[in-house]
């Protein structure tokens, strides 16, 4: 397959609750590979199943945890979450947030500062992850997508500057 079309604002699929993944098979691997390709092409940070028209509990995120900020070029790493669950949260941060399904609608969203989540990888192996900052925000944002909740439901207000540059 390859690139998938990103579902846009107004499509009712973005408001639907997703079902758990039950088969950790080649079809799932293909979906995840396609989602990576689509995310890179869109220059995004995270992407959830419903955003490519798949109502299953799956999302991916860029993994910047081990990235060297000074390196000129490096391969992007990704995290894959299947049937994820946020098991604990800590703190609160209100910050600029965007979504590939709502281009130009970037809002101020309050999220936990830290989260602990568990999920399965593409082979069906469970893992637990502690995340903070951007990754914690992404895990919350993408988990919302699996419940049919989007930035439109969460944003306290939207920025006028669509690039999200604050004064
Ligand atoms: Ni989103």
From TrEMBL:
Binds 1 Fe(2+) ion. The lineage of its organism: Bacteria, Bacillati, Bacillota, Clostridia, Eubacteriales. GO terms for molecular function: metal ion binding; peptide deformylase activity. Removes the formyl group from the N-terminal Met of newly synthesized proteins. Requires at least a dipeptide for an efficient rate of reaction. N-terminal L-methionine is a prerequisite for activity but the enzyme has broad specificity at other positions. It comes from the Bacteria. It catalyses: N-terminal N-formyl-L-methionyl-[peptide] + H2O = N-terminal L-methionyl-[peptide] + formate. Its cofactor is Fe(2+). Fe cation binds at residues 99, 141, 145. Pfam families: Pep_deformylase. The gene is def. HAMAP family: Pep_deformylase (MF_00163). The keyword Acetylation does not apply. GO terms for biological process: translation. This is Peptide deformylase.
